[in-house]
Amino acid sequence: xxxxxxxxxxxxxxxxxxxxxxxxxxxxxxxxxxxxxxxxxxxxxxxxxxxxxxxxxxxxxxxxxxxxxxxxxxxxxxxxxxxxxxxxxxxxxxxxxxxxxxxxxxxxxxxxxxxxxxxxxxxxxxxxxxxxxxxxxxxxxxxxxxxxxxxxxxxxxxxxxxxxxxxxxxxxxxxxxxxxxxxxxxxxxxxxxxxxxxxxxxxxxxxxxxxxxxxxxxxxxxxxxxxxxxxxxxxxxxxxxxxxxxxxxxxxxxxxxxxxxxxxxxxxxxxxxxxxxxxxxxxxxxxxxxxxxxxxxxxxxxxxxxxxxxxxxxxxxxxxxxx
Length: 323
Prior knowledge:
By secondary structure, this protein is α/β, with parallel strands linked by helices. The chain is 40% helix and 17% strand.
């Protein structure tokens, strides 16, 4: 028995001397801390992102898409809440006039000036060829334009253009006509979708691409007065929106991914040609587009009346916006 007690004592001493430090640390922690407390990323609170509606997708709503993505992000980041507020431009500027600035903005090219936004850390991912980049905001999706052929076998003689800028880009020889009487219609994808879904006479219309150009790029930027902690959360949310899994959820709305490694799959067979045309895309500086759009519209209207100098000015301005 004496020898057994000696062996047990020696074993106890060895255990105390050589017990792994991790076990000792674990013994010092409260059990409830390690088993029942939710882990967070360190930030607990809300950030407000204002989505300013200038363009709409072929179907559905970008505001609702952002809300669904925010919910998915919140599940992965307990204690962090992303509030998405959608509004048109008039409502947005009324809000600003009342001094209500959000933490971040989701907006289309031409909506904001750069001095409202903070400089951002660049996110490293493969952009689709032709997507414009700037340090003040990050693109996360885009829509576009199309040619809606109302009577595929009707010998197209009249055309409708959604705005003068689109008409000047198309440079067609068709006679302008009201929307309801035109054979060919040049318009944005949302209007084309609405006509096909809800307007008699367009059910069998064909959709073709106009070209690979679009100004309907949706960006996200951070307000210059947002504090660093919230800014980091927003930048992480933008990165989440750009993950392939998130980008693939854009296509059911008729939106296209800005990632080169994400294959865009049209939600309807009629959009195949348009989606194919946008595999590489031509886009614009979102802030220069804001500054130049009124002049572009004026020159486009003059060019439609046969003003050759206005037509050349339009071409130069448009090319400048693409740089």
